[in-house]
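Colleagues,

For the teaching module next term, I've prepared a clean inverse folding example: a structure given as tokens, and then the sequence designed for it. I'd like students to try predicting residues themselves before seeing the answer, so please don't circulate the second half yet.
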């Protein structure tokens, strides 16, 4: 573990103490002893004083040491103004000035000063190792991984076969640049990896360096921009200078959007430092020769806000999409992570991949780790299917809170609510199959949940399927109205999701006859992040009123459909809620059997 040393007041006090000690040592080395006046008088009476120099406040001279028999320098305070008479009485040579002893005095001050400066230099050097000092402000903060430090290969990255195939050209160029030069081909100067968070963009870039066996410079886009103007540009220059010295190599800039945001983006000023840094990056990318062997890789999940100058040919020539993996990709990723744990022989990786629709590589790595921790908690020697099913629930819905006390009335409402979701989902075509129902509280606010897992990856949804999804979300509120003749706050999240789907149908998908086939998105969203971006209102108030009426009509229509389904199946709703209150968990196949009349 790396130790961090902090400079405190104790270091300063220690330095002063060392200086004083060395000063006393130097004084004692040159033999100047400070004597009390009484001892001086005794030495004078014993006729051991040989000579004295007198000043207004002190006396300095020599006396004979009885042990060594040699003359020793001394100094004492002048007390008696008639000291000259005493010296004449004992025949001591004296004069009215102090002899200059320049060398001892000089060394007694200069040497401690040099020692103090040495201690200060040592402390500053240690601090420079912990954090950048003033002399290193313009240096880049890139982490340099040499060939022996990189143990990531393409075999360690799964589920992104198309991206790996694109990057293999970079590996071939770094290994055999002559093959490209013979045909006059040029490798792209910059390669931009775009995709949602957690899909493996950074790992892919390390795998390129590991496969090609070249140094790897890794730096985040936010590390270029500092408080002081000009430091970011200086760090860009220093980064490219170091890379050219170690060529062939790879420069990787993570989170490029922190550095390469479009100039003039937003109305807030004060972006001079970031824009200077971006300008310097553009200049460096234009200036270096691709034949040198410096490949620039960058990653971002917000490509829509990057400056257009970064994306033109000659800079970031190639964009590689690192998207969410499909079912086969998730299965391959799971197999990579399963190599590090002991699993049961009957583990069905394909089933787990089907349960994890929408998850990226980071989510799947966390899922495997959660399953392993559950197996350890249950004192098992292998990780089996039950642990993975529980891990999926934990990742999707949150941690179970079995100790949370819920009064019987609320448990009954939650049971009716979750059964309403399940019955509506099983009654409508095109909905995801119900796998499990639970009334055990999970996560922050979920008092129960109905787990639906898709049988396959879907990229398109029809209008009927979206309407059925809204009806399923409203099934919980409909069950409460039928069984308790009242409604609760438990449908808060369901209403929000249903309203979002209905609004998207009207404004974005053109699925409303009244509004028509027109796109009315009030705000644009990021391509890979579910974050709204600023945008102007592009329709009138009358159109906004029409959109609101259509959204409300869709919600009311599907809520009526959910009420009709549950009224027709009220006995199943009551029996399912009773079993749910007894067991707290019901598998999807039990609900299907109940609806089939068994």
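(Answer key — instructors only)
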């Amino acid at each position: 573990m790396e130790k961090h040393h902090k400079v405190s007041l104790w270091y300063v006090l220690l330095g002063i103490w060392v200086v004083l000690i060395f000063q006393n040592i130097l004084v004692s080395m040159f033999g100047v002893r400070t004597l009390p006046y009484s001892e001086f008088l005794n030495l004078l009476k014993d006729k051991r004083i040989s000579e004295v120099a007198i000043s207004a406040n002190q006396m300095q001279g020599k006396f004979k040491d009885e042990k060594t028999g040699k003359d020793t320098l001394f100094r004492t305070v002048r007390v008696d103004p008639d000291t000259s008479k005493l010296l004449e009485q004992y025949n001591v040579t004296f004069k009215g000035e102090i002899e200059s002893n320049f060398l001892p005095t000089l060394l007694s001050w200069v040497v401690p000063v040099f020692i103090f400066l040495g201690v200060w230099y040592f402390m500053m050097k240690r601090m420079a190792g912990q954090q950048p000092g003033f002399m290193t402000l313009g240096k880049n903060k890139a982490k340099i991984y040499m060939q022996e430090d990189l143990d990531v290969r393409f075999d360690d990255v799964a589920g992104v076969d198309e991206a790996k195939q694109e990057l293999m050209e970079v590996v071939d160029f770094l290994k055999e640049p002559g093959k490209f030069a013979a045909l006059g081909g040029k490798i792209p100067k910059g390669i931009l990896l775009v995709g949602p968070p957690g899909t493996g963009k950074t790992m892919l870039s390390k795998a390129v360096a590991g496969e090609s066996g070249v140094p790897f410079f890794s730096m985040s886009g936010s590390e270029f921009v500092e408080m002081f103007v000009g430091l970011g540009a200086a760090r860009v220059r220093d980064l490219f200078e170091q890379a050219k010295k170690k060529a062939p190599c790879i420069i990787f800039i993570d989170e490029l959007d922190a550095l390469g945001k479009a100039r003039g983006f937003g109305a807030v000023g004060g972006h001079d430092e970031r824009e200077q840094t971006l300008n310097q990056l553009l200049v460096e990318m234009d200036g270096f020769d691709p034949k040198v062997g410096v490949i620039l890789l960058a990653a971002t999940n917000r490509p829509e806000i990057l400056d257009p100058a970064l994306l033109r040919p000659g800079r970031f020539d190639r964009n590689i999409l690192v998207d969410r993996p499909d079912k086969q990709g998730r299965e391959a990723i799971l197999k990579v992570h399963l190599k590090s744990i002991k699993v049961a022989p009957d583990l069905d990786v394909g089933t787990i991949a089907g349960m994890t629709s929408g998850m990226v590589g980071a989510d799947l790595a966390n899922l495997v780790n959660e399953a392993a921790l559950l197996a350890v908690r249950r004192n098992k020697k292998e990780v089996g299917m039950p642990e993975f099913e529980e891990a999926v629930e934990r990742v999707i819905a949150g941690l179970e809170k079995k100790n949370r006390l819920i009064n019987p009335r609320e448990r009954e409402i939650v049971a009716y609510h979750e059964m309403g979701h399940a019955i509506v989902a099983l009654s409508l075509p095109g909905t995801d199959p119900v796998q499990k129902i639970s009334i055990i509280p999970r996560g922050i606010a979920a008092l129960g949940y109905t787990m639906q897992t898709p049988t396959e990856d879907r990229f398109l949804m029809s209008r009927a399927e979206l309407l059925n999804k809204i009806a399923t979300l409203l099934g919980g509120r409909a069950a409460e109205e039928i069984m308790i003749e009242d409604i609760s706050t438990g449908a808060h999240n369901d209403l929000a999701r249903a309203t979002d789907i209905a609004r998207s149908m009207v404004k974005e998908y053109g699925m409303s006859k009244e509004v028509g086939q027109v796109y009315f998105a009030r705000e644009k969203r990021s391509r890979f992040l579910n974050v709204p971006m600023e945008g102007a209102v592009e329709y009138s108030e009358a159109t906004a009123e029409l959109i609101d009426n259509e959204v409300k009509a869709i919600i009311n229509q599907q809520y009526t459909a959910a009420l009709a389904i549950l009224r027709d199946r009220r006995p199943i709703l009551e029996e399912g809620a009773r079993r749910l209150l007894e067991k707290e968990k019901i598998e999807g196949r039990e609900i299907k059997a109940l609806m089939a009349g068994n």
